[in-house]
User: Fold this.
Amino acid sequence: MPDWNFERYKSEANDLWENELKKLKSQRNLKNKKRFSILLFIIHF
Assistant:
Protein backbone atom coordinates (compact mmCIF):
# COMPACT_ATOMS: atom_id res chain seq x y z
CA MET A 1 0.00 0.00 0.00
CA PRO A 2 2.21 2.79 -1.23
CA ASP A 3 -0.33 5.53 -0.56
CA TRP A 4 -1.51 4.48 2.89
CA ASN A 5 -4.50 6.62 3.75
CA PHE A 6 -6.44 5.24 6.70
CA GLU A 7 -9.52 7.41 6.14
CA ARG A 8 -9.81 6.36 2.50
CA TYR A 9 -9.55 2.65 3.33
CA LYS A 10 -11.99 3.11 6.19
CA SER A 11 -14.47 4.84 3.88
CA GLU A 12 -14.10 2.17 1.18
CA ALA A 13 -14.60 -0.61 3.71
CA ASN A 14 -17.69 1.12 5.06
CA ASP A 15 -19.12 1.48 1.55
CA LEU A 16 -18.55 -2.22 0.85
CA TRP A 17 -20.19 -3.14 4.14
CA GLU A 18 -23.22 -0.96 3.44
CA ASN A 19 -23.64 -2.49 -0.02
CA GLU A 20 -23.62 -5.99 1.45
CA LEU A 21 -26.18 -4.98 4.09
CA LYS A 22 -28.44 -3.57 1.38
CA LYS A 23 -28.30 -6.91 -0.43
CA LEU A 24 -29.31 -8.76 2.73
CA LYS A 25 -32.13 -6.32 3.45
CA SER A 26 -33.54 -6.62 -0.07
CA GLN A 27 -33.41 -10.43 0.11
CA ARG A 28 -35.20 -10.31 3.47
CA ASN A 29 -37.84 -7.94 2.07
CA LEU A 30 -38.44 -10.26 -0.87
CA LYS A 31 -38.92 -13.22 1.48
CA ASN A 32 -41.33 -11.19 3.62
CA LYS A 33 -43.33 -10.15 0.54
CA LYS A 34 -43.60 -13.78 -0.53
CA ARG A 35 -44.75 -14.83 2.94
CA PHE A 36 -47.29 -12.02 3.05
CA SER A 37 -48.65 -12.99 -0.37
CA ILE A 38 -49.00 -16.60 0.71
CA LEU A 39 -50.80 -15.59 3.89
CA LEU A 40 -53.19 -13.37 1.95
CA PHE A 41 -53.92 -16.25 -0.40
CA ILE A 42 -54.56 -18.65 2.47
CA ILE A 43 -56.80 -16.17 4.31
CA HIS A 44 -58.75 -15.37 1.16
CA PHE A 45 -59.67 -19.01 0.55
Notes: Residues 38 and 45 are 11 Å apart (CA to CA). The radius of gyration is 20 Å. The chain has a mean pLDDT of 85. The helical segments are 6-44.
